[in-house]
Amino acid sequence: MQILFQTRCPALIMLVFVCSYSILCGCTQKSHGSPEGYDFRTPQKRELGKVLNEISGLNYNTENHTLLAISDSKRKIFQIDVKKQKLKDYAEKFSKQADFEDIVKLNNTVYVLVSDGTIMSVPPNAKDSSGTVSYPFWSKDKNDFETMYYDSVANGLIIICKSCAKDKNQGVKSAYRFDLGKKRFDSSKFYAISTDSVRSAVRNNDANFKPSAAAIHPINQRLYILSSAGQLLVVTDTRGKVIEAFNLNPDRNPQAEGIAFSPHGTLFISNEGKYGKATLQIFPYKGHRISDKISNR
Predict the structure, then answer these.
(1) Closest CA to 91 of 106, 115, 111
(2) Are strands 256-261 and 242-247 parallel, antiparallel or unpaired?
(3) Residue 280 pairs with which residues in a beta bridge?
(4) Using one digit for the tens of pLDDT, what is the confidence trace for 12-59?
(5) What's the pTM value of the predicted model, to 2 decimals?
């Protein structure tokens, strides 16, 4: 009876085996959802060119409605004109070191994050390092940061650990505040994000959460965090409580390292050129065209 079943129904046996294996392993196919107000299935795309192949940070410049970008190894700040798809230097040679990870512009000052947690303030149109001021992170442990964003309520720049010594085996990613008034880091963490909460939200117990960029949504005031490792978008409140999480489509976002919002909610995600050219993905908010978002003052 058993031999007859195996001979005549091999497809059924295979189906039962696959289903049983999936249940036992807890394996599920990743779905690529979209946060409210966006459709991640239909992004507008720009190629950024070879000079930004290692683009690592992005910020929306409300002064002229362009994007400012930083690259890992380039001692320059770039300005991207999205409408005309043009690129020019905004500042250059502002530092003698490299490994830049993120960027925020406030009024006439641009702040650049270095991977060890150091924040640099760069004057507009800098041509050398004479006007740059460095603010080292207080911990001398082995730390790796890729994420910095501005929180107006906290009056500070917030940096989130990608990998920090004090977080080891703690199941969290800690965030620290740089006080813009006192121009110094707080001595204690600002908040911590539970990695288990991220995994629960994305329904994947093996999800790899290592923050690579973040920005606060100008309308709903939620924090949107990219994790290039694991290819995730995690949405939290401004104190790190996880609200929801989404898998990013790896074909469109192979290495998401930068995120920014226009004042009207248009979402920009930049990708390093991991398997080709660096790209900029553009997601209009609530179905509005990108031209509407950029042209509105």
Answers:
(1) 111
(2) unpaired
(3) 46, 270
(4) 444 444 344 333 333 444 667 899 999 999 899 999 988 999 999 999
(5) 0.86
